[in-house]
Write a structure and sequence with these properties.
The complex is a heterodimer of chains A (about 110) and B (about 120).
Chain A (H helix, E strand, L loop, with lengths): L8 E5 L4 E6 L7 E7 L6 E6 L3 E5 L2 E6 L4 E6 L8 E9 L1 E4 L3 E6 L1
Chain B lengths: L3 E4 L2 E4 L5 E7 L4 E9 L6 E7 L5 E2 L8 E7 L2 E6 L8 E9 L8 E3 L3 E5 L1
Parallel strand pairs in B: 2-11
Antiparallel strand pairs in B: 1-3, 3-8, 4-5, 4-9, 5-6, 7-8, 9-10, 9-11
Classes of the chains: A mainly beta (about 110), B mainly beta (about 120).
C-alpha cells in the first residue's frame, strides 16, 4: 500500500498559519493533490504538485518532496470558513487518499 | 467549467431494495469516472473505475455483483446498490476525468449522495 499519513486534527486561531503534513510510502505516482472537504460535501480541488517544490495559490501553498516522501499544505491568514477536512491524495491515475486532517479555526 | 452532478443527493431505502445513483459530467466528456465511498470521519475509498463502453474495474473487497456500475455514455455513469443493507449506508461520491487536453488528469467530484438504508 501507499501508507498515506496525515495528522487527525489541528486547531488554530483566525489569522494564523497552519501547516498540514502528509507523508507517504511509494515512489511511483504522477503527482499529489490537496483537497478541501466540508462536512457532508464532496472534496474541492486546492492544489496539485507534480514536481518538487512549492506551489503558491493565494492563501494556500503546497509543497512536495519526492525524495523525502513528504508534502505539506500551508494555510495562511486563516479564516473561519477554512474550518474543514483537508485531504492529500496520490495520483497514480487512480487517487489514493489520506484519512484527512480536520482543521478547526477559532476566533 | 468541469461540473459533475449526482442524483439523488439523499436517499433513504429499506433493507433489501436497490438504489440507483447517477453521475453526470455536465460540460465535458468523461472517458473515465470513479466511484468512492466515504464512511463518517473516514477518507474516501475508491470502489471502482468506470470506463465508457467497457466493464468497470473494481477495487479489492468490493463486490461487483452488489455494486453494479454502468458507463453507457461519455457523460453518464450509474451505480446501483443492489439488495441494500444498513451497512451500505454511506456517502457515495463520483468523480469524472476529462479527455486529455480537456481537463487533463484532474478528477472533478460530484456533490455526493447520502444513502441511508433502514
Amino acid at each position: 500500500g501507499q501508507n498515506i499519513d496525515q495528522p487527525t486534527e489541528m486547531t488554530a486561531t483566525e489569522g494564523a498559519i497552519v501547516q498540514i503534513n502528509c507523508t507517504y510510502q511509494t515512489s511511483g505516482f504522477n503527482g499529489l493533490f490537496w483537497y478541501q472537504q466540508h462536512a457532508g460535501e464532496a472534496p474541492t480541488f486546492l492544489s496539485y504538485n507534480v514536481l518538487d517544490g512549492l506551489e503558491e495559490k493565494g492563501r494556500f501553498s503546497s509543497f512536495l518532496s519526492r525524495s523525502k516522501g513528504y508534502s505539506y499544505l500551508l494555510l495562511k491568514e486563516l479564516q473561519m470558513k477554512d474550518s474543514a477536512s483537508y485531504l492529500c491524495a496520490l495520483n497514480d491515475y487512480k487517487l489514493s487518499f489520506g484519512a484527512g486532517t480536520t482543521v478547526t479555526v477559532r476566533a | 467549467g468541469a461540473v459533475v452532478s449526482q442524483h439523488p443527493s439523499r436517499v433513504i431505502c429499506k433493507s433489501g431494495t436497490s438504489v440507483k445513483i447517477e453521475c453526470r459530467s455536465l460540460d465535458f466528456q468523461a472517458t473515465t469516472m470513479f466511484w468512492y465511498r466515504q464512511f463518517p470521519k473516514q477518507s474516501l475509498m475508491l470502489m471502482a473505475t468506470s470506463n465508457e463502453g467497457s466493464k468497470a474495474t473494481y477495487e479489492q473487497g468490493v463486490e461487483k455483483d452488489k455494486f453494479l456500475i454502468n458507463h453507457a455514455s461519455l457523460t453518464l455513469s450509474t451505480l446501483t446498490v443492489t439488495s441494500a443493507h444498513p451497512e451500505d449506508s454511506s456517502f457515495y461520491i463520483c468523480s469524472a476525468m476529462g479527455l486529455a487536453g480537456n481537463s487533463g488528469n484532474e478528477q472533478y467530484f460530484g456533490p455526493g449522495t447520502r444513502l441511508t438504508v433502514t
